[in-house]
Amino acid sequence: MQSNKIDFKQFATYSKPGPRYTSYPTAVEFSEKYTLDLYLQDLKADTSPLSLYVHLPFCRSACYFCGCNVVYTSKEENKKIYLEYLKKELELLKNAMDTNKPVYQLHFGGGTPTFFNAEELGVLVDLLKDAFPNFGQNAEIACEIDPRFFELSQMEVLKKGGFNRLSFGIQDFDAKVQEAIHRIQPFTLVQKAIQLARDYGITSINFDLIYGLPYQSLETFKKTLESCLLLNPDRFAVFNYAHVPWIKKTMRKIDETTLPHPEEKLRILEWTMDYLLKNGYQMIGMDHFAKPDDELFKSIQKGQLQRNFQGYSTQGGTQTIGIGLTSIGGGKDYYAQNYKDLTQYQEALDNHRLPFAKGIRLSNEDKIRKAVIMQLMSNFKLDFSTINQQFAFDFKEHFKEALEELKPLEEEGLVEINAKGIWVSETGALLIRNIVMPFDAYLKNFNTNQKVFSKTI
After folding, report:
1. What CA–CA distance (Å, rounded) separates 250 from 112?
2. Taking the CB of residue 396, how many other CB atoms lie within 10 A of it?
3. pTM above 0.85, yes or no
4. pLDDT per residue as tens digits for the range 387-407
């Protein structure tokens, strides 16, 4: 990645709506034109090793900043019923595909995975390993953790199940911010949860932080980061809060007048980057930081970092199987998403049908553009000859219009384009969504007034 002094005033001028590119084509392009029959064909045809994502949607109460697909409940029986439906889904998958392929990744997301108690988590792990028996020796097995719902018995089950990576939702330690986002978790509670994970040998711990939340300022966020470093996580994911109340009703509970101004957000981001770099972390992707001995950092050094629906990963070339409500999976030729509505999800399984709702089969053009966008999003550089060989075409001719669109960004020093490829500068890495958008063939279908994507800044 080319380096230059970051000009944050220049940076602010590029804020506009755009995808986060956890997939290409993005999820807004999924449709019912891609049918269950097509999905079943693609599911079976893909011979790649497996990456499993299990969505556990339940939360006891709403965190107002959250953009995830969740179901709020306090009823314990709802979790047990959900496990029964996951069992049905796994049985159908066993008949629909080769589940004996090696598993390189497993990720529990939510919702609040640790809202499920130890016994329930144990049942789920057993169900998964029965359905997918061939876990690789070095498989990445991860779970998202809410420190408010995390205890010894759960950690014991996760350890026994082979989990080796935990991601803790921190967001912010400031009491006023926590109150405004409806998520109270004092430092001492989080400290206890982290110590529990370390006591059980978890050597890869990630912290999720969000900047742009109500009542945040540079001074309050400094204290949050200083507190985080006392707990010594191995990775940070520092996200820009995406305020999309037209999509997530709970966000309407946030008083927009309390959100920090863009200038303050940029001051927070600038200080965060500088602080983490000075304290031994390296920037990975557009919003991640990791210690130099972390696998993510090693992957980006080799130009092998990958991007998927769970963020950045060291595991490429896998077929992702989305399991559970609203889960998204995908392979070489397709993306597929389960029903978002719990009733529809259950009805499909009651009728012995996978809870598939919609998706997309990738055209050759989609595959070309996916390769370009994901390479730039992950590794901040693109070698023309590699893409030319992979797809047997002339990159510069094929993407003549996109390269022309990038010229103003090149003049600003955000990218460098020469005969061999594209290199992204340090400032450009923060604007990587803007840089890859010219390669997105679907964006022309949206006008600037449509509320579809969050802003890039």
Report:
1. 16
2. 12
3. yes
4. 999 999 999 999 999 999 999
